[in-house]
Amino acid sequence: MTDKHRGIWSSVTLHVVLSVMAFMVILPFVWMVLASFKTGDTVYSESWLPQGPWQFQNYGDVFNIQNGRGIDFDRYMTNSIFVAAWVTFLQVLTSAMAAFGFSRIEWPGRDKVFLLYLSTMMLPGLVMMIPNYKLMITLGLVDSLPGLIIPAAFSTFGTFLLRQFMLAIPKSLDEAAEIDGASKWQLFWDVILPLARPGLITLTIFTFIGNYQSFFWPLVMLSTRDRYTLPIGLLMFDGQASFSGHLLMAAATMSVLPMIVLFVVLQKYLVKGIQLGAVKG
Amino acid sequence: MKPQLHNIKRIGSGLLWVGPNLLGFAAFTLFPLLFSLYMAFTNWDLTRHNALMAQQLGEQYEGPRIVGLANFVHLFQSPRFGEYLGNTLFLMLAIPFNIAASLTLAILLSKPMFGKASGTAKHVRIILAGFVGVFGLGVLIMLGLRIEATIILFCTVLTLVLALGMAGGSTLYRTLFYLPHFTAGVAVYILWKRLYSLSGPINTTLAEPLHKATVITNSTPAILFAVAGGLFFIGAAAVLLWSLRAFARTWRDGELGTGALVIANTVACLPVVIAVAWWSGSAYGPLRIMPWLLVAGGAVALSVQIVSLRRRFTGRPVQTFDGFGSVLLSALIRLTIMMVLMGLGAFICQLPLHAAGRDGLQPPDWLNQHTWAKPAIMVMGFWAALGSNNMLLYLAGLSNVPPELYEAADIDGASGLQRFWHVTWPQLAPTTFFIFIMSVIGGLQGGFDAARVLTEGGAGTTTLSYFIYTSAFVDLGLGYGSAIAWVLFALVLVVTLFNWKIGNTYVND
To answer: On the CB side of B33, how many CA atoms lie within 13 Å of its CA?
Structure first.
């Protein structure tokens, strides 16, 4: 900027505009957190702040199933994390191996198989869900956590994303490793995986969050209360707790908070991954 | 070693790596895909074809039969299919608004701003911003602001955001804008359900302004509102005519293929068609006749254009879909403007009618009224979409615009708006096109989560994906559900093929 004063003032205006917009975007979250500290009959009071003492015990009451008001929150949370962690582990492992096979190893028919992968990426997931449901019935996995984990453990998108990252690693490293007498496994484990780390982290976050939030498939599969994941548990809580919005908001806060923390800590990788993943392959 | 054996060995070494993923892919993607096509042609119904249940009842188990096209015939004859498709398309009308918001945010975030300071400078700025906030608040109170806890709270939060933004720069804002998209899930939908509830915070906030608006409206002659509303409609009509003329001119100049012209015309007619459909019937009926109205509107527009250009008509050397991408995007902009104008016009025209009622203007019961449920879900979607991946893609796109172009524009003395229309927008067109296609594909399949949590499919919010859910997993008609899923698949496929065929030629332009 040639005119320094103009630069500062336009910068200040920009900050004001952006902060007002950001403020409006986070308002619903502000209401959620504040409502979780109110009493049951003042949730919808005109004042956003709790009038009277803040009800910190709401957060304890969410877990309290004895008095019939709370839900089995910790169980649902554990189930969600269990499912998301297993899916993430399996998906990242198989996707990384497949991406290695698609990007670092020459084999006849490789590109045809990859094209098949690519062509199914656009398919609506809904088409596959009905036969998969029947498949789960046949395998006896309906209403079980493995029934949530196994179908989600193999991802074409993950393979595509990691392949994008691995293609960016120079080929000369492979040759150097070969001259040093490294096996393919050593090349994979000691050279490629460390260099593809940003990609692995991106896929890990995407997969974990996606499965932690997953709604449709668990809703279809689960019917036993003990096996509910967090979204299903919250949905049922919403149905039964029309009178206790304060506890519902406390539960919602507790399920959103880990994601916010995760995002703030790891957002650098996410931004890269999203921008790279959208590049047409 | 024989070459063939060598080849097999190489395939083997490849499959060793790809194998685990490929097996899962075959079992849970490829096989279900083919099997669901088979299911779509059967009368498979878990309430009837259930080996376990038959065993318990001591009956002979009878498997599902192939019934040919019966599922599809049933589907297309059912009035519900048209209604749900209409709901899905209606919710997709939010797409241009979402994209415009993402683009606006990305442009604001990519402007140079002071920020990202470190060390002492950072702390000084935080303190400075905090001081400005507290001082501003103090002035407001001294000027006679009624001190309410909520207002103080808002000011505090706003100041906090500003202070953090001063210290963190665009990264901080980007993080905050992205949060709704990142956290969107059942918890956030439940939150919005509460926000929208009859006595929730949105309606509480609206009550006071609506009361004032009632008083003002009732003390103003109704004719003024009719005139003002009418002006908005005339404005929308002017935009439509201007758009059709502009399209026709580019077509005549040989920059636009006929196919692209037809589609642009149809898109530009969409708001009029929606308006006609809206006023012509009940809450259900109009959405079904919309496709026909749309075709008719596009045809009328085209014939008017051809008639008015007939004398200057010359053979065009261009291909059918040349210039498709840019004309589609420009049609979408005009469509958005028209929808805003007509929406405001309708709102203003109806204002006196509602205000004269016994209770005056009342905040709506958002999620239980046909008129408001869809807009409510669209607003929530807007909130979740404005800072989403689209914003990040635009940010990446903006950083790739060659700075020479802006310098050239500056030398030519271009204003800010001109810089946008002649440099930024054309440079970002491939990104916009990509985002648009992805949003359309997502929109066709979407709407389930929000509808399930907020309305349970009531008040006209059942989309195609919700329809598949109820048909296949609630009514347990696996065959029928598969048939709907394949119709949805066909719709998505049309858009995808369109993108491949036209998007590629467009990006290479």
So the answer is: 16
Query: Is residue A210 within 8 angstroms of chain B, CB to CB?
Result: no
Q: From start to end of B309-371, where are the E strands?
A: none
Q: Which pLDDT does position B119 carry in this prediction? A: 62
Whole-angstrom CA distances from B137 to A19, A215, B408 are 16, 44, 44
Quick check: B309 and B249 in contact, CB under 8 A? Answer: no
Q: What is the mean pLDDT of residues A67-84?
A: 86
Chain B residue numbers with beta carbons less than 8 Å from the beta carbon of A235 are 186, 190, 452-453
CA atoms of B391 and A112, how far apart (whole Å): 34
Closest residue on chain B to A43 (Cα): B200
Looking at chain B, the whole-number percentage of residues with pLDDT higher than 90 is 11
SS (H, E, C) B436-449: HHHHHHHHHHCCHH
Task: Output the pLDDT for position A91.
Answer: 92
Q: What is the largest CA-CA distance in chain B?
A: 97
**For A53-74, how does the pLDDT look when each residue is reduced to its tens digit (9 = 90+)?**
888 888 888 887 776 677 888 8
What's the pLDDT score for residue A4?
Answer: 47
Average pLDDT over residues B179-189: 89
CB contact under 8 A, A133 and B178: no
Positive or negative: CA dihedral B353, B357, B361, B367 = negative
Whole-angstrom distance, CA of residue B195 vs CA of residue B201: 6
- Banded pLDDT at B503 (limits 50, 70, 90): low
- Reference B109, options B296, B330, B374, B386; nearest CA is B386
Q: Comparing C-alpha atoms, which of B180, B500, B256, B150 is closest to residue A122?
A: B500
User: A184 vs B10: CB contact, 8 Å cut-off?
Assistant: no
Phi, then psi, of B66 in degrees rounded to 5: -80, 130
Is the Cβ–Cβ distance between B363 and B203 less than 8 Å?
Answer: yes
All structural domains of chain B with their residue ranges? 3-78, 115-168, 199-364
Token look-up 């059709």 returns B244
CA-closest candidate to residue B240, choices B209, B272, B193: B272
Q: For residue range A39-49, list pLDDT tens digits in order.
A: 888 888 877 87
Mean predicted confidence (pLDDT) in A179-184: 83
Question: Where does residue B382 rank: exposed (0-12), middle (13-18), buried (19+ CB within 10 A)?
Answer: middle
Can you tell me the mean pLDDT for B401-415?
Answer: 85
Give the distance from residue B483's alpha carbon to the nearest chain A alpha carbon, in angstroms: 9
The pLDDT score that the predictor gives to residue A280 is: 34
Q: Does B494 contact chain A (CB < 8 Å)? A: no
Q: What is the mean pLDDT of residues A109-138?
A: 86
End-to-end CA distance of chain A: 39
For chain B, say whether A151 makes contact (Cβ under 8 Å).
Answer: yes
pLDDT of B43 above 90: no
Residue A45's Cα: distance from chain center in Å? 34
Cβ atoms within 10 Å of A85's Cβ, excluding its own: 15
Residue B325's nearest CA partner among B391, B259, B389, B274 is B259
Q: Rounded to whole angstroms, what are the CA distances from A80 to A114, A149, B461? A: 32, 11, 28
Q: Which residues contact A156 (CB under 8 A, 6 or more apart)?
A: A117, A118, A120, A121, B25, B29
CA dist list (Å): B462 to B38, B377, B465, B469, B491:
26, 11, 8, 10, 17
**Does pLDDT of B288 surpass 80?**
no
Question: Which residues 6+ apart lie within 8 Å of B381 measured at CB?
Answer: B91, B94, B98, B450
Q: Is B102 a residue whose pLDDT tops 90?
A: yes
pTM for the full model?
0.84
User: Which is more confidently placed, A188 or A270?
Assistant: A188
